[in-house]
Amino acid sequence: MSVRIHNFMGRFGWEMQKRFPMLASSAYLKLQFKARAKSQKAYIDFFNKGKEAPQPLIVNLETINRCNSDCEFCAASRQNECRPLKKMSDELFHSIIDQLSDWGFKGHLTLYGNNEPWIDDRIVEFHKYCREKLPDSFIFMSTNGLLLNIDKVKAIVPYIDQLIINNYCDDMKLHDNVKEIYEYVRTHEEEFGDVEILIQMRYIKAVLTNRAGSAPNKAATEKVITETCLMPFTDMFIFPDGRMGICCCDNLEKTTLADLNNETLKDAWNGIKYTQLRKAVAGGRQNWPFCKNCDFIDAGLRMDAVTDVLNGRPMRGARQTMFSKNKK
Q1: Secondary structure class of 162 (helix, strand, coil)
Q2: In terms of Cα–Cα distance, which of 165, 206, 138, 161 is closest to 5?
Q3: Residue 258: its pLDDT value, please?
Q4: E strand or H helix at 27
């Protein structure tokens, strides 16, 4: 077990985001697009070699489409939310996880999209079911931590590999409850097994990406983005109503690539709409209307997974749990 606090580029990075938000965003994106171009192309070439699409590396499953934070960069924040409330049914959730299990899925899974998972009062039981059905998957939770306390951390850690607490603030200080959790975990490591707890210091007013035009504080421009994107090749993004959208940048739930109420997970992933999207985006975002002005860049998690696959290694984070040991 480990617990640590991460702050991208420390005080310098924080002040850049605060004092020069557009410059900081532009510089970061230029760097990342350049640094990741070769690996992105290599993975897309790998993906397209087979007759059938490889499994997604990451499944993002949103069980409820609500958040309780005030982040200025997100359309799902309390002040910006405009989506009708949706909550995934128990039956649909269990069906999706069962299908992943039958598919032999061993990638990354998170019950998170553009929302706060702890708003769903079923979240611990849902994670328990995921761990039982997907013993070899890397299951992680990403939360803003506002509803979190020590008891909730203890309740969730038996079923996850990583807990990411995004401490959104404007003063670079831990919230009182997050500080209490951090100090407790440091002094009671034996209670948290092999779970990694990562506390990320996040600037609540940051200007990040335009997220295909949905970011409230960074509108999409007419600039056409010619770089490709890994999301259609690495990620499966599932809305609470069972529709599969393009990616997390569809904050407003406008895209539909498949409907898991009417077709299987595997058929959807290999379906016509996904195939058309991948063929277009492989040649650049300019080839798909939703993506052509989007400057979102793939997060480190995806690049780590892609690197592992390209090098023939198991994806980082895979673990042998008590469930997989019992199955043996």
Answers
A1: strand
A2: 165
A3: 97
A4: helix 21-47
CB contact at 8 A, 17 and 65:
no
Q: Are strands 196-203 and 235-238 parallel, antiparallel or unpaired?
A: unpaired
DSSP SS3 for 236: strand
Which is nearest to 130 in space by CA: 166, 165, 158? 158
Half-sphere exposure of 236 (CA within 13 A, CB side): 30
Who's near 155: CB < 8 A, 6+ residues apart?
124
- Residue 212 per-residue DSSP state: G
Q: Which tokens go with 115?
A: 């929302």
Q: What length does the chain have?
A: 328
Task: Give whole-number Cα distances, 49 to 43, 281, 315, in Å.
Answer: 10, 16, 20
Q: Please count the CA atoms within 13 angstroms of the CA of 288 that sit on its side-chain side.
A: 23
Separation CA 175–CA 153 (nearest Å): 15
Are 111 and 130 in contact by the 8 Å Cβ rule? The answer is yes
pLDDT digits (tens, 9 = 90+) for 12-65: 999 999 999 999 999 999 999 998 999 999 999 999 998 889 999 999 999 999
Return the SS3 of 196.
Answer: strand
Q: Identify whether the C-beta of residue 128 lies closer than 8 Å to the C-beta of residue 122.
A: no
Tell me which residues of the chain have a pLDDT lower than 70.
1, 316-328
Q: Using alpha carbons, select from 32, 30, 116, 33 the residue that is nearest to residue 74.
A: 116
